[in-house]
Amino acid sequence: MANQSKLIERLINELTKMPGIGRKTAQRLTYFLLKAPDDYVSNLAHLLNEIKEHVKPCRECGNLTEVELCAVCADETRNRQLICAVEDPADIALIERTGEFNGVYHVLMGVISPLEGIGPDQLRLGELVKRVQTGRVVEVIVATDPDVEGDTTAYYIAKLLSPLGVKATRIARGLPVGGDLDFADEVTLAKAIAGRQEIEE
Amino acid sequence: MANQSKLIERLINELTKMPGIGRKTAQRLTYFLLKAPDDYVSNLAHLLNEIKEHVKPCRECGNLTEVELCAVCADETRNRQLICAVEDPADIALIERTGEFNGVYHVLMGVISPLEGIGPDQLRLGELVKRVQTGRVVEVIVATDPDVEGDTTAYYIAKLLSPLGVKATRIARGLPVGGDLDFADEVTLAKAIAGRQEIEE
Fold first, then answer.
1. Which of A25, A107, B7, B158 makes the best surface tag, with the fewest CB within 10 Å?
2. Vertex B42, ends B92 and A29: CA angle to 5°?
3. Which residues of A78-104 are buried (b: 16+ CB within 10 A; e: fewer)?
4. Structure ipTM over 0.95, yes or no
5. Do residue A46 and residue B43 have CB atoms under 8 angstroms apart?
6. Where are the domains of chain A?
């Protein structure tokens, strides 16, 4: 569009590189930023620079943190016998929100995906083995996505850890809570039946 | 979430203030930014500061520009007898993309909306009257949204301009091109019938 400010055009182009942001959304965001208070925009710009400068992977688990050890690894009350392996740091935030997990994490930084050319060597698996070998780990829960790549990665990890005498488990597949049996696909329903649990009285 | 970096949390919070960005989207964008190349993020931060510093309203029409006159107003081939009044600068980009309008624009900076406490005084209507009085304007096309506020604003502008001997017109309401008669609501269909045009042979 020749009739628009070059700066606006450049900002729109940069924003469309973000996931889920198409051209229309980028335009809407840009006009929002143009109308927004100066403070808001300069603060946003400042934060962008700050996260790139200060947020680094946790020395222990690979979670993102501003200090050497992330809040989970630094918390002495967490159960270090239990490691939950996740694809990326965002998954840690999701699991933490449940308030149900008291172990520690290990960020794999991806999953095995031959289609995208990602093999086991590109994941943080060596670090996981080292943690298992040197720590008091009893169980590794693999919480990758319930898809082909996530399952492949889980099997690979289970094989990798079995000589070390550590239990590898996979998060349960089943019906989402509040969901409707009518709307479940057959694979999920089959997994839910296979993974059935005794009703505690 | 106590277990996350404070900077990450602050960035997520700031992003959720943008239109159409909920908490999940803000998280996804934040993790994208954390993984993105340093260049991309610092460039984005730089652009945010730049637009706030350099992009200002055009002296003539109120469009956003980095120089005194926007590209449309600076273009000597545009027809200055025809002014298209729009709600905000984003609408200019939309109309320019059609390639069908060769006149100039006037940004109203909103529409009359009693519910939101926006009266005619808060719009750039005085500037519009002044342009009509001093220029060679023949017609003002009101291209506000086809809703109650947009229509109210159009009627107000028509009344305001009638003593000045300038024609005020409204963009056509009708069926969207490529749409289906079955899916049109009654009001749109009624407008489409009322606004019917002779078929040119």
1. B158
2. 30
3. beeebbbbbbbbbbbbebbeeeebebb
4. no
5. no
6. 2-54, 72-198
CA-to-CA distance for B79 and B100, rounded, in angstroms?
Answer: 12
Q: What is the DSSP letter of A113?
A: B
- H helix or E strand, kind and range, residue A167: strand A167-170
Element of type H or E holding A85:
strand A79-86
> pLDDT value at position B4?
65
Whether chain A has a CB inside 8 Å of the CB on B17: the answer is: yes
Asked if CATH classification 3.30.1050.10 holds for the domain at A2-54, the reply, yes or no, is no
Does B55 contact A10 at a Cβ distance shorter than 8 Å? no
Identify any residues that bridge with A56 across adjacent strands, giving them in sequence order: A65
User: A117-175 pLDDT, tens per residue?
Assistant: 899 999 999 999 999 999 889 999 999 888 889 989 999 999 999 999 899 998 888 87
CA-based Rg of chain A, rounded to a whole angstrom?
22
Long-range contacts of B54-60 (CB under 8 A, 24+ apart): B54/A7, B55/A5, B55/A7, B55/A8, B55/A34, B57/B107, B60/B104, B60/B131
* Residue contact A10–B47, C-beta within 8 A: yes
For the stretch B78-91, pLDDT in tens is 999 999 999 988 88
Contact, A156 vs A119, CB < 8 A?
A: no
- Inspect the interface and report whether the beta carbons of A55 and B7 lie closer than 8 Å: yes
**How high is the pLDDT of residue B35?**
85
**Does the pTM exceed 0.90?**
no
Q: Which of B96, B91, B64 is nearest to A6 (CA)?
A: B64
A72-198: CATH, from 3.40.1360.10, 3.40.50.10960, 3.20.20.370, 3.40.50.920: 3.40.1360.10
Rounded Cα distance between A15 and A25, Å, is: 9
Query: How far apart, in whole angstroms, are the C-alpha atoms of residue A50 and residue A68?
Result: 16
CB pairs under 8 A between A and B: 163
